[in-house]
Design brief:
The complex is a heterodimer of chains A (734) and B (316). Chain A has 734 residues and is of the alpha+beta class. Chain A has 23 helices and 20 strands. Chain A has 4 domains: 218 residues, no CATH class; 311 residues, no CATH class; 73 residues; 97 residues, no CATH class. Chain A is elongated, with a radius of gyration of 40 Å. Chain B starts with 5 loop residues before the first helix and ends in an 11-residue tail after the last helix. Classes of the chains: A alpha+beta (734), B alpha/beta (316). Chain B: Pfam families: AAA_3, AAA_lid_2.
C-alpha cells in the first residue's frame, strides 16, 4: 500500500515537474518578445505556486503562501519602503486605486509597471492552479503539450524568438511524461503488486525511444518549408492588396495592373484622410501600355527629386485653363503602407510636415516620398490649381497631336479584336469634335446596360482580350473594365488617351473639425480605389473622363455663355442649345446617377455596417449555441437524469401506477435494458433485477400485474409502492 | 378460493412417485382442473401410467385403464347391455370409461371406430348405449397415450380428434440423477402404494368450479386471441388453432393461475401453456418440415413476435 502511494505521488510529482518545465517554455520568450524584465522572478513564482499546490492540501494555507510570495516579489521589484510598513501599504493602496481607475476608463496604456506585474503574477497563479488540476487531478497532460507546441510554433514563426531548442526540450519532456501518465492510468485500472519494476520496464523503452527520436529529429536533414513564409503572406492578405493575381482580391490600390479582372471583396480600411476643398479625384499615376490583359508602363520609373516641392509636371497648360488655387492636406493612415502621394488635378507644390523630399516620375505622374524615413506622421500638403475646362474650347480643339504623344498614347495590342474598334467607330459615328467623341464613349457604357459590380467579374482567358471580353461578353465589371475600355476605344479612333489610377474623393467624415468655408475632412478607404481616363486635347492638355457607370467626374466643365451671346448667330445658338441639351442630358443623367450612386454608397456603407453588425450578431449567436450544445453534450447524462427525476416526481405526486410503471419501462429501455416484444413483465422484471442487482422491480411488477391483469386498484400500501419505485429509479440513475 | 391451498399438497403427493417430472405433473393437474384431457405422446416405460395412478390415488378418484388394441370394440370402452335372464331385462354393464380418471393406453392402436367412441364420450360427457344415454362420472379425466415410435398397424388420430385434448404432453426420460433416485425409492416397496388421498372427489369438483371462476382480464383475452390468430396467418401453417383452441388456452391458463395461487390470469400463464395447448392443434404445411419448422418452434416464434400487453386496455 505504501509503495502504491509513493509511486502515485512520485509520478504525479514528475507530471507536475514536467508541467512546470513546459510552462517555463511559455515564459522563456517573454523577455525576447515583450519588454518584460526580471522574468526569472516570474519563473520562480510559478515554481512556488506549483510546489505549494503539490505539497499542501489546505486551500487557505495554499492561498496565503501564494499571496505572500506575490507580495514579496512585488516588494522586491517595485517597493522601496519597508515591507508592511505604513508607507508601504499606502503605496500599494495608491497604486491599486490609481490603476483600477485607469482600467475603469479603458486607458490601459497608462497602467503602471507595478500593476501590470501584479496582474501577470495573478495570471501565473491562475495558470499554475489550472495546470496542477490538469496534470494531477484530471490527468490530462496532452492538451497542454499540444498548446505548448502551437504556442512555440506561432512565436517562432511570427516573432524574433527562435524556438528549435525549446521545441526539442518540449518534445522530450512531454513524450516521456505522456508515457508516464499512460502508465499511471493503466496502473490505476490494474492491480499489480510489482509496480516499481514494471515502471522501469515501462519507462526505459519510452525514454530510449524519445531520446532516439529527438536525436534523429535534430540531426536529420529537414526539408525547406513547403508553404511560403506565412508572415508576408498573411500581411499581404490582411493589408492593402493590389489588383493582384488571384481571382478574388481585396479592393484597393495596387501597383501591378498587368492582369486585370477578377472579383473583389470590399475593404473599408482607411488609406488616408484629407482636408480638401470639394470632392476631388486623387490621382496617383497613369499607365500607357495596354497589353490586352492589363496595363504596364512603357518606360521604367525614373524618379527625380522635386526641388522645394515645386511640381513642374502638368496635365494641362496653366495659361489656357481657368483655375482656382486651393490647398489640400493629406494624412496617410500610418498602418496603411501606401507609399505613393495622392494629389488632386492641378498640383503645383507639395510640402511635407516632416520636411521630406518627394520624388516624381514625370512619365506617369507618380510622386513618392523619401521612403527611408519611417516617421509616423507622413502628412503632406498639396497646393493645386483646380482646373475648369471650357466646353467650347474643348470642342474647338485641334487634332494636331504632338508626335511623342501619338507615339505613346495611341499604342494598342496587335491582336486587339477588330470588333472593339468597330464598336468605337459606331459609337462616335455622329460626333464631330474629339470632346464629343470622348463624351459619347464615356456615356456609352451606362446607356447600354453595362453594369458596375465587383463580384463575379471574370478574368480574360489566354487569347482573350480584357476589353473585348467586357464589351461583348460579360457587360459587367468595375472601374478598370470601364476605364480601360474607354481608353482602348479612344485609341482605336486615334485619340490619345491614358489610363489613370488613384482614389475617388471618399466620404466626408461625420464630425468635421472647424475648417475654412468649402473645405471638408474626407476619409478615403481602400474601397475608394479607382481608375479613370485622361484624354489628350492638343490645346487643353489631359482632361479626365469618367466612364464607369455610377461614378461622376468631379472635374469642372463650364459652358462659355458669353461666346454664345457674342456671336449672336442663330445657327450657333441652335448649336449651343443643342450642345447644351446634349450636354445637359448626360449631366442630368450623371446627376441622377450620382445621386443614385451616393445613395448606393451610403446604402452600401450602411449595409456594410449593418452587415458587419449582423455578422457579429450571428457569429456570437452561433458561438453561444455551440457552447450551449457542447455543455449540453458533456452534461447530457446529468441533464437527462434531472429531467427524469423531475418527470418522475410529477408522476409520484399522483402515483398513478400505470403512467409511472410505463415511464419506468421507457426509462429502462433508454438505458439499454430493452424489453423484447414477447417478454412478459415478470420475465423482464427478473432480468432487470438481475442486471441492476435489485429485487424491487419484481415486486413492482407483481403490483402492476394486479392492476393491469386483475383490473383492481392497488391493494398495496401506496407509500410502500412509492418506495419501490424510488429505489428502482435510484438504481437506474446510479 | 377455498381449496386453492390444496393444490400444493396434491403436487407434493404425486411428486413422491414422479421424480423430476414437476412440469408434467403440474400440467396434468392443470388439465384436470380445467376439466380437459391430456394426450401423452411418449415411449413406453417412462411413467405415464404411474403418473395417472398417483394422480387418481391422491384425489381419491376411481382409476380405470383401457389398453387399446386393434380388436377393441367401442362397447369394450363404453360398456354393454347384457340380458339378465333372471330379471328378464337388459342390464347395462358399464365399460372402463365410467371411471373418474381413465388411462387410454396406446390409443392409436385401435380402430378409428373405437377411438371415436372414446373421444365422443370425452366431448359429450355422456355415452349412449342401446338408445340409453348414460352420464359419465364427474370428474372425468382422460389421459390418452400414444407411442410415437411404433407406427406399424396404428391408426393415427385424426386432427379433429386431437383438438379434443386440452394439451399434448410428453414425459421424456428422466435425467440420471432422477433415475438414480427413482431406483432408490422403488428398491423395497413402490411408493405408489404409500400414496394416500389428499382431497376427495367432491373437493376436486369444487376446485374445478373455482378455476372456472377465475378472472381473465380483457387484455389477456386479447393476447390469447392474437396468439391464436397468429397461428392461422402463418405461412407455414395449413390449419391453425381453432376457436376451441382459444377457449382451451384460456381455461388452461386459468387452471395454471389457480395452481400458482393467483385468482387472475397473467400473460405468463398463457406464455407458459401455449406450446402444450396449441402445438397439437396446428397442422403444418409440408414445406415447413423441409424448413425445419416444427409446431413448437412456430409457437415460440409467435410468442416472440406478439407483443405482451403491458398497458390497460383502452376502452372506447
Amino acid at each position: 500500500m505504501t509503495s502504491k502511494i509513493s509511486l502515485s505521488s512520485i509520478s504525479s510529482f514528475i507530471l507536475l515537474l514536467a508541467g512546470f518545465l513546459l510552462f517555463w517554455e511559455w515564459l522563456r520568450p517573454l523577455e525576447e518578445v515583450t519588454d518584460t524584465g526580471n522574468s526569472h522572478l516570474f519563473v520562480i513564482y510559478t515554481a512556488i505556486c506549483f510546489l505549494v499546490s503539490f505539497f499542501l492540501r489546505n486551500g487557505w494555507v495554499k492561498f496565503a503562501l501564494k499571496f505572500i510570495a506575490l507580495l514579496l516579489i512585488l516588494d522586491y521589484l517595485f517597493l522601496a519602503e519597508t515591507l508592511l510598513s505604513r508607507e508601504w501599504l499606502q503605496l500599494i493602496k495608491t497604486e491599486v486605486s490609481y490603476n483600477l481607475e485607469i482600467a475603469w476608463n479603458n486607458d490601459w496604456y497608462l497602467m503602471t509597471a507595478f500593476f501590470r506585474s501584479l496582474l501577470f503574477l495573478l495570471l501565473l497563479w491562475l495558470m499554475s492552479y489550472l495546470l496542477h488540476y490538469w496534470f494531477t487531478v484530471a490527468n490530462k497532460f496532452f492538451i497542454f503539450v499540444v498548446l505548448t507546441i502551437v504556442y512555440l510554433a506561432v512565436l517562432d514563426t511570427f516573432t524574433v524568438y527562435d524556438a528549435p531548442l525549446a521545441m526539442v526540450r518540449t518534445f522530450v519532456i512531454s513524450f516521456v511524461v505522456l508515457g508516464l501518465s499512460r502508465y499511471v492510468k493503466l496502473m490505476d485500472n490494474n492491480e499489480t503488486n510489482d509496480k516499481q519494476s514494471n515502471l522501469v520496464t515501462w519507462m526505459l523503452p519510452i525514454v530510449a525511444i524519445v531520446l532516439f527520436a529527438a536525436l534523429l529529429g535534430i540531426y536529420s536533414p529537414k526539408p525547406t518549408p513547403q508553404w511560403p513564409d506565412p508572415v508576408p503572406f498573411i500581411k499581404s492578405t490582411a493589408g492593402h492588396v493590389g489588383f493582384g493575381d488571384g481571382p478574388v482580391q481585396k479592393v484597393g490600390y495596387g501597383e501591378d495592373d498587368s492582369r486585370l479582372g477578377g472579383s473583389f471583396v470590399q475593404d473599408d480600411t482607411t488609406v488616408f484622410e484629407a482636408i480638401v476643398h470639394d470632392n476631388v479625384y486623387w490621382r496617383i499615376e497613369s499607365k500607357d501600355v495596354y497589353t490586352g490583359k492589363g496595363w504596364e508602363r512603357s518606360s521604367e520609373l525614373d524618379y527625380a527629386p522635386l526641388e522645394n516641392g515645386e511640381v513642374q509636371w502638368r496635365t494641362f497648360p496653366l495659361e489656357n485653363t481657368e483655375t482656382t488655387p486651393y490647398e489640400a492636406m493629406v494624412r496617410p493612415e500610418s498602418t496603411n503602407e501606401l507609399p505613393k502621394v495622392v494629389y488632386p488635378y492641378g498640383i503645383n507644390r507639395i510640402e511635407s510636415m516632416q520636411r521630406e523630399t518627394f520624388y516624381m516620375d514625370m512619365a506617369s505622374g507618380m510622386i513618392e516620398a523619401e521612403s527611408s524615413e519611417q516617421s509616423p506622421n507622413r502628412s503632406y500638403s498639396v497646393q493645386y490649381d483646380a482646373p475648369s475646362f471650357s466646353l467650347d474650347e474643348l470642342r474647338n480643339n485641334s487634332n494636331n497631336d504632338p508626335e511623342d504623344i501619338k507615339q505613346r498614347y495611341l499604342q494598342l495590342p496587335e491582336d486587339l479584336p477588330e470588333r472593339v474598334s468597330n464598336l468605337a467607330a459606331e459609337v462616335v459615328e455622329d460626333e464631330e469634335s474629339r470632346y464629343d467623341k470622348a463624351k459619347a464613349i464615356e456615356s456609352y457604357f451606362a446607356q447600354n446596360g453595362y453594369t458596375y459590380q465587383i463580384e463575379d467579374v471574370s478574368v480574360p482567358d489566354e487569347g482573350e482580350d480584357y476589353v473585348d471580353q467586357f464589351l461583348f461578353e460579360t457587360h459587367v465589371g468595375y472601374c478598370d473594365n470601364f476605364s480601360t475600355s474607354m481608353v482602348v476605344m479612344l485609341r482605336s479612333l486615334d485619340i490619345p488617351a491614358r489610363w489613370v489610377k488613384g482614389f475617388t474623393g471618399g466620404a466626408e467624415v461625420a464630425d468635421q473639425p472647424p475648417l475654412p468655408d468649402g473645405y471638408s475632412l474626407y476619409e478615403v478607404t481602400n474601397n475608394n480605389a479607382h481608375s479613370w481616363v485622361e484624354v489628350f486635347f492638343p490645346d487643353t492638355g489631359w482632361v479626365p473622363f469618367e466612364p464607369t457607370s455610377g461614378f461622376t467626374n468631379p472635374t469642372d466643365f463650364y459652358q462659355d455663355v458669353t461666346s454664345d451671346i457674342d456671336t449672336g448667330d442663330s445657327s450657333e445658338e441652335e448649336n449651343a442649345t443643342e450642345e447644351e441639351t446634349s450636354e445637359e442630358e448626360p449631366e442630368l443623367e450623371d446627376a441622377e446617377a450620382e445621386e443614385e450612386q451616393e445613395d448606393n454608397l451610403i446604402g452600401d456603407l450602411e449595409n456594410n455596417d449593418n452587415w458587419n453588425g449582423w455578422l457579429y450578431f450571428w457569429i456570437s449567436i452561433i458561438v453561444v449555441i455551440l457552447i450551449l450544445a457542447t455543455v449540453a453534450f458533456l452534461k447530457r447524462n446529468q441533464i437527462r437524469d434531472w429531467y427524469t427525476l423531475r418527470k418522475w416526481h410529477k408522476l409520484t405526486q399522483k402515483l398513478e401506477i400505470e403512467p409511472a410503471y410505463i415511464y419506468l419501462l421507457t426509462l429502462l429501455e433508454k438505458r439499454g435494458y430493452k424489453r423484447r416484444k414477447g417478454q412478459t413483465l415478470r420475465q423482464y422484471a427478473v432480468e432487470i433485477d438481475q442486471q441492476l442487482r435489485t429485487t424491487e422491480m419484481y415486486d413492482l411488477t407483481l403490483a402492476y400485474e394486479q392492476y393491469i391483469y386483475r383490473n383492481q386498484e392497488i391493494s398495496e400500501d401506496k407509500s410502500k409502492l412509492r418506495n419501490l419505485f424510488q429505489r428502482v429509479i435510484d438504481q437506474i440513475l446510479a | 378460493m377455498e381449496y386453492q391451498n390444496q393444490v400444493a399438497k396434491i403436487l407434493q403427493n404425486i411428486e413422491r412417485v414422479m421424480i423430476g417430472k414437476e412440469q408434467e405433473v403440474t400440467l396434468s393437474l392443470v388439465a384436470l382442473l380445467a376439466d380437459g384431457h391430456v394426450l401423452l405422446e411418449d415411449v413406453p416405460g417412462v411413467g405415464k401410467t404411474m403418473m395417472v395412478r398417483a394422480l387418481s390415488k391422491s384425489l381419491d378418484c376411481e382409476f380405470k385403464r383401457i389398453q387399446f388394441t386393434p380388436d377393441l370394440l367401442p362397447s369394450d370402452v363404453t360398456g354393454v347391455s347384457i340380458y339378465n335372464p333372471k330379471e328378464m331385462v337388459f342390464e347395462f354393464r358399464s365399460g372402463p370409461i365410467f371411471g373418474d380418471i381413465v388411462l387410454a393406453d396406446e390409443i392409436n392402436r385401435t380402430s378409428p371406430k373405437t377411438q371415436s367412441a372414446l373421444l365422443e364420450a370425452m366431448e359429450e360427457m355422456n355415452v349412449t348405449v342401446d338408445g340409453m344415454t348414460k352420464s359419465l362420472n364427474k370428474p372425468f379425466f382422460v389421459m390418452a397415450t400414444q407411442n410415437p415410435v411404433d407406427y406399424e398397424g396404428t391408426y393415427p388420430l385424426p386432427e379433429a380428434q386431437l383438438d379434443r385434448f386440452l394439451m399434448k404432453l410428453s414425459m421424456g426420460y428422466p435425467n440420471e440423477v432422477d433415475e438414480f433416485e427413482m431406483l432408490n425409492r422403488t428398491d423395497r416397496q413402490h411408493p405408489i402404494d404409500e400414496i394416500t388421498p389428499v382431497i376427495h372427489k367432491e373437493q376436486l369438483i369444487e376446485m374445478q368450479k373455482e378455476v372456472d371462476s377465475l378472472y381473465v382480464d380483457a387484455t389477456v383475452k386479447r393476447y390469447i386471441v392474437q396468439l391464436v390468430s397468429a397461428t392461422r396467418t402463418s405461412n407455414f401453417v395449413q390449419l391453425g388453432v381453432s376457436p376451441r383452441g382459444s377457449i382451451a388456452l384460456m381455461k388452461a391458463a386459468k387452471a395454471y393461475a389457480y395452481i400458482q395461487g393467483r385468482d387472475y390470469v397473467i400473460p405468463d400463464d398463457v406464455v407458459m401453456l401455449a406450446p402444450y395447448v396449441m402445438a397439437h392443434r396446428i397442422i403444418l404445411r409440408p414445406e415447413a418440415r423441409y424448413e425445419g419448422v416444427t409446431q413448437e418452434k412456430l409457437i415460440t416464434q409467435i410468442l416472440d413476435e406478439i407483443d405482451v400487453p403491458v398497458r390497460k386496455e383502452l376502452h372506447g
